[in-house]
Amino acid sequence: LGHMVSSSGVTSVLEKVQAVSQWPTPRTPRALRGFLGLAGFYRQFIKGYAALASPLTKLLCHDQFEWSQEAETAFQNLKRALIEAPVLALPDFTTPFVVETDASGSSMGAVLTQKRHPLAYYNKQFCPKLLNASTYVRELAAITAAVKKWHQYLLGHHFVILTNHQSLRELMNQTIQTPEQHRYLARLLGFDYSIQYRAGRNNVVAGALSRS
After folding, report:
1. Which of 44, 111, 160, 171 is deepest in the core (most CB within 10 A)?
2. What angle do CA 90, 56, 53 make, to 5 degrees?
């Protein structure tokens, strides 16, 4: 993919794919399901997806989860497929961007998309202070971190933020009650966005990234 040029600069492919390329080897069935959830969401863009994923899906069909060299090879191949064209698209500044975010107990995940096609992935561990914060604050931190990460695409363009935290839908209409809320909302000033709720079960990609 080389380098992708935005309206205000250049962002390397490494930054776009790091969250997936550094995904740790799944050690439990739950961890594997999380990875396959992300990969399966974009299966329409991955040539030969069923064959690539087969050694991994087989591990979930048996009572005993046993990681093998075959599984490791399939895992690496599927990661590679997720970060290569045609999975990652080039940005189209005539089409609205969508930022999908999710916050787990210890980290956040996000994906930047257009027409359900991924442009970039992002995940980040929370600092100790956020580990003890409320779910609301962690979700708000995830949104502001993702917007900051991709500001070169989003500034000057209307975009949609998808979150699985219902109270954030009315973010701009809420009364700011704490300095912490004020600090995070200030980071969104100057951006043209709307917030939509997406149930956690449908927030597959960002949810998987936040737990990787």
Report:
1. 111
2. 40
Calpha distance 46→40 (Å, rounded): 9
> Up-side HSE of residue 138: CA atoms within 13 Å toward CB?
23
Look up residue 93 and give its amino acid: F
Question: Is the model's pLDDT at 4 over the cut of 50?
Answer: no
β-sheet with 117-125: strand ranges across:
117-125, 107-114, 97-103, 159-163, 193-197
Q: Where are the alpha helices (DSSP H) in 108-178?
A: 128-131, 135-149, 151-154
pLDDT at 111 over 70: yes
pTM of the full structure:
0.75
Alpha helices (H) in the chain, listed in sequence order: 13-21, 29-41, 49-59, 69-82, 128-131, 135-149, 151-154, 179-186, 204-210
d(CA 175, CA 77): 48
**CB under 8 A, 24+ apart: contacts of 124-127:** none
28-32, 129-133, 165-169, 193-197: least confidently modelled range: 165-169
pLDDT digits (tens, 9 = 90+) for 63-94: 778 999 999 999 999 999 988 867 788 889 99
Residue whose token pair is 């497929």: 81
Measured between its terminal Cα atoms, the distance across the chain in Å is 24
Residues in the chain: 212
Helix axes 179-186, 135-149, angle to 10 degrees: 20
